[in-house]
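Figure 2 data, in text form.
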Amino acid sequence: MNQLVYEYYKLRSRSAENPPKHLVEIVGTESESLFRELAAISLPVDIKRPVVADLSKWEIVTDWVGMSPRPALVILRATYGYAYIDPLFAAYIRGSRQAGYPTWAYHFFLYTQNWRSQADTYLRTVKAQGITPDFKPVFDIEGYLPSGMSRATANGMIENWLSYVENTLGKSCVLYSSRNYLNQLYAVVPPAWLTNPSRLKWVAGYPNDPNLYSDMPIWYRPVGMPEDPALWQYSDKARFIGITGAVDVSDMSDWYEAIFSNPVGC
C-alpha cells in the first residue's frame, strides 16, 4: 500500500493539503497521514533539456569534462555587492570554458550598496577572465527593498547598473529575478529597464514537482512582462555526475532555444 501511495504521489500530485479523492478511495483514509509525510520528500528532479546549470562556491565541481547531464549553458556567480568576489569564479569559468560550455556570469545586486561600486567590481572580475563571444552579463535581482527606499530610487539604481555595464562591455544584460521580487518595483506598468527587448529575462519559480510542467506555469510570470522569459529556473535540487551537492537548473523556452542553437542569432 505504501508503494502505491508513493507512486501516485510521485506521478500526479505534490499537494500535502488535499490528497486526491480517488487515492483515498483506493488505499483508505488511514493513508492520508502517509500522503502528507510523503509531500515532504524531495523527489528526483528530471533535468529538462537543453540543460542550464548555475553554479557558485556552494556547488563543488569535481569533473567539468565528465559532467552529466552535459550542460548546454553554465551560469556562474561572479560577484555579490561591491566587495565580494566568488572565490571559485576564476577557476570555474576556466574549467567551464575548457570543457566547451558556453558560460555567462551574474552579479547579485544589493540595494543597500552603491550601484557604481558594484558594477565596477563586476566588470573588473569578468574582464579579468576575458569576454568571449558567447559571454553574457547577468543581473540578479533578489531581496526586498530596504525600509524607506522608494521604487523610483531602486529602479534608477538598476537602470544605471545595467546601462553602465552594457555600455562598457558592448553586450546586453540578462535579467534574473522572480515575480515577487520584480513586482515590488512597480504597480502595473513595468519599468523601461525590464521591458527593454534586448535584455533576456530569466525567471525563477519552483513548483512542488517541476516534473509535471514542460513550460513555466503562468503564475510565475511577473505582472506586465511583455514576453515569455528566455529561461525558467525551476529547481534547486538537481543532481549531476561531476558536481557535489544540489544544483540550480533552468529550462530554455522554445523560442530562445532556437536562437541559442544558432550562434548568429544568439
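Caption note: Residues 52-260 form a domain with the TIM Barrel fold (CATH 3.20.20.80).
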